[in-house]
Specification:
CATH topology of the largest domain: Dihydrodipicolinate Reductase, domain 2
Radius of gyration: 20 Å
Order of helices and strands: EHEHEHEHEHEHEHHHEEEEEEEHHHE
CATH architecture of the largest domain: 2-Layer Sandwich
InterPro entries: Gfo/Idh/MocA-like_OxRdtase_N (IPR000683), Gfo/Idh/MocA_Oxidoreductases (IPR051450), GFO_IDH_MocA-like_dom (IPR055170), NAD(P)-bd_dom_sf (IPR036291)
GO molecular function, one term: nucleotide binding
Number of helices: 12
Largest sheet: 9 strands, mixed
């Protein structure tokens, strides 16, 4: 019999119940061994619903029964401890976005994963899109020449969630709702910056392999409420810089905006991850319209858990890495600080000149 990956899931909430648990339960390469949730009633309900072998209210007990990989889907500010526990146990980990709220914690997870020879994945879905991967390949081939400008715009109807209305989570296939403060509380990492801006920033970083060095940002939050819209400018180690706009204040999520423009000296990219369209043009050649993606492949949500499982079985490689997650956290935290302090924030990620994580540089960086 072919080996199956023994999978544990920490957090039985909205996204987990809607996407990850159904996908793992259907995956022929996976054995859903444990579901953990601080709410033991929710853990037991999920166990029965998705035919898990065990239910726990903590990850430590789950790790004792032997797991190959763990998927962390707790609220944003509760990712670090279960992820660290799993990595120290030598278990592969996938963390839902955002990775964590603190750059210090982000890079520590990257360091411990490398130290323990564990695969560390991020739950970002867009890097799994064939259009996104196509653009990344073209950029790595230098098809568009030296990059000058990137523009990312990401907007939808998420504002009700930030104001405590969980009715928008009552979607087909979503058996559970999030804790109300997951998206309404600054302490929990609620608001547009950590919920949606994390997507557009991480996708641009994935596409371009850019290393951010300075951030200027604005959030429309207040002392009482999380942000619903924000904007930032990102400088990088190269000439390339990028601007981002992100908002949860649209009136119709079906007409949301997910657009990326990348301008190089030899051509440009026009990518839409909502419509599944891609246009590219290289100098002296006509504009090329790539084949649109079918709707089910526009945002390949179940690919994240599939790749987590497949890497355990040596059938795939990490797509959205822990380094990508940590770089994104650097940008998000610098954006928050920039808006609060009304000045540009310099960052110095522990990435060497070859573009690789180097733990020796952690002391020299912001962490």
């Amino acid at each position: 019999m072919d080996k199956k990956a023994r999978v544990g899931v920490v957090g039985a909430g909205w996204w987990s119940g809607r996407v990850h648990l159904p996908a793992i339960a259907k995956n022929k390469d996976a054995e859903l061994v444990a579901i953990c949730d601080a709410n033991m009633g929710r853990a037991n309900e999920s166990k029965e619903m998705f035919s898990s072998e065990f239910a726990f209210d903590n990850i430590e007990d789950a790790l004792k029964i032997g797991l190959d990989c763990v998927l962390i889907t707790t609220p944003h500010n509760q990712h670090f401890l279960p992820a660290m526990a799993a990595l120290k146990a030598g278990v592969d980990v996938m963390i839902e976005k955002p990775m964590v709220l603190s750059p210090l914690e982000a890079w520590e997870l990257v360091r411990v994963a490398a130290e323990n020879n564990c695969n560390l994945h991020m739950g970002y879905t867009f890097p799994h899109s064939s259009h996104v991967q196509k653009v990344r390949d073209l950029l790595r081939e230098n098809s568009f020449g030296e990059l000058e400008l990137g523009v990312g715009l990401f907007a939808g109807n998420i504002l009700p969630l930030y104001r405590g209305d969980k009715d928008i989570q009552k979607e087909e296939g979503a058996p559970f709702a999030s804790q109300i403060d997951t998206y309404t509380s600054k302490k929990s990492g609620g608001g547009q910056l950590y919920t949606q801006t994390t997507h557009v920033v991480s996708t641009m970083l994935f596409l371009t392999d850019a290393i951010p060095t300075s951030i200027s940002g604005v959030l429309n939050d207040s002392s009482q409420t999380v942000d619903s819209s924000n904007s930032l400018i990102m400088r990088t180690r190269d000439k390339f810089f990028a601007t981002f706009g992100s908002s949860g204040a649209m009136t119709d999520h079906n007409n949301r905006i997910e657009q990326y423009k990348i301008i190089g000296q030899l051509g440009h990219v026009n990518l839409d991850t909502c419509k599944g369209t891609l246009e590219t043009q290289i100098k002296s050649k006509a504009l090329f319209t790539h084949e649109p993606l079918p709707q089910e492949l526009v945002n390949p949500m179940s690919e994240t858990s599939r790749v987590l499982i497949s890497t355990v079985l040596k059938k795939a490689s990490v797509v959205a890495s822990g380094v990508l997650g940590a770089l994104t956290v650097e940008v998000l935290e610098a954006t928050r600080r920039s808006s609060l302090e009304r000045k540009a924030i310099d960052i110095n990620p522990p990435i060497n000149s070859a573009g690789k994580f180097d733990p020796k540089l952690m002391k020299e960086s912001n962490v």
